[in-house]
Amino acid sequence: MTNQFKDGFLWGGATAANQFEGGLNEGGKGLNLADVLPGGKERLKLLASPGFDFEIDQAKYHYPNHEGIDFYHRYKEDIALFAEMGFKVFRLSIAWSRIFPNGDETEANEAGLAFYDRIFDELAKYNIEPLVTIAHYETPLHLIKEYGGWKNRKLVEFFDRYVEAIFTRYQDKVKYWLTFNEINGATHLPLLGLGFSPESEATRLQESFQGLHHQFVASARAVKKGHEIIPESQIGCMLLYAPVYAFDANPENVMYVRREADLFNFFCGDVQVRGEYPYFAKRYFEENNIKLKIEAGDLEEIKQGTVDFISFSYYMSRTDKKHKTAEEMGQGNLIGGVKNPFLSASDWGWEIDPIGLRIALNELYARYQKPLMIVENGLGAYDQIEADGSIQDDYRIDYLREHIKQMGEAVQDGVDLIGYTPWGCIDLVSASTGEYSKRYGFIYVDKHDDGSGTMERMRKKSFYWYKQVIESNGNEL
């Protein structure tokens, strides 16, 4: 079957400033959350447990995000490689602490603004559309230590100032914007999305949903402000999406996963797309003793600031049941659940489910009837350089090919899909483990977990394959 991707479909790739930029202390940049997250397997443990201290301890840990892959200095080379693949769009984030080093200043940092001017100008040279994430796990450290992160209402005001500065500066250079990266992941790992470590497990939900409410208000205000300053702008939300399957046909398990799916996949989407809290929120809040402080005008602002399109990440589905043992738990799946006997998994234990992407696209489109964009999808794997210097990553090609096929099926189903930006189109630092060895890219970067490497860029086999996919608008896979 020929995949019926529309003319002008936005093929590209995705990154985040904190995972690939580097330039830690350059251009007046302040420290942000990612700068205090150590590399290695201990990162996930620190992310998930209360009481993180937000200090850099060079004697105990290493911090790969400080260097990333040095896009800060090598952006021309990297953007030229993206252009060679034929990118129509490039997803990147702005590091908030480059624009406002502490986050609470009244004046933006000119050197930070000028850096992104150079990036956008370079992209324009090749007719690559920037897709900019405004907040991607990069809360300025000062806002975390001084104010307690997004639990504090004052961050709405600071975010207002930040978005006004970047919308005003880049109004002629950036059309596509996303407000908060994977906003619905905040209740699982509030440290990443909300910039605070819960006081305790008992208070996690109360703190997280209050922080989310502040982000909903901030996002709605950003959408309104963006439309005022850049009338032709398209501003989207960004969800972490995973279809949830019942382990079996037991109605108790079916009802359980229905509620889990509603809460994880649709709670934030309903607020940002429909402009109101979902029908099931009241009962959930009551049963979990969550009492939101909602100020006068908040709900009206949320209603008025709904997004133009929906973007999401898709890496895996989730299979679950109401009562499960530790032995049944899926190993590696970040979002919990039990092992699905019908699926294989990546080197990091993430279950691989291409059909789940078609299911996700249909579920989202059926609920919201808004254009969709897949802004993260990909396979983290160990890559090996062969004796002839090539990198034969057929496993990555196979993974992406099967997912793109299912995108084509969803388009045939009637879904309005407007773009696809696979994650880590160039190798970068993993968000979950702080590793270089968990590689996603079409471009290999010679940098390793022990800190060694030349930073040399090399095209993988998948580089040439993806070039062909883009040239053929998804018809040659």
Automatic annotation (TrEMBL):
Q: Which GO terms describe its molecular function?
A: beta-glucosidase activity
A single GO BP term for this record reads: carbohydrate catabolic process
Residues folding into a coiled coil are none
Q: Short name of one Pfam family for this protein?
A: Glyco_hydro_1
The answer to whether the entry has keyword Protease is no
UniProt xrefs under InterPro entries:
GH, GH_1_N_CS, Glyco_hydro_1
PROSITE patterns, alphabetically? GLYCOSYL_HYDROL_F1_2
GO cellular-component term (any)? cytosol
* Entry-linked Gene3D superfamilies: Glycosidases
Has UniProt tagged this entry with the keyword Hydrolase? yes
Q: Which domain of life is it from?
A: Bacteria
Q: Which UniProt keywords apply?
A: Glycosidase, Hydrolase
| Family note | Belongs to the glycosyl hydrolase 1 family.
Q: What is this protein called?
A: 6-phospho-beta-glucosidase
User: Which organism encodes this protein?
Assistant: Amphibacillus marinus
Upper classification of the organism: Bacteria, Bacillati, Bacillota, Bacilli, Bacillales
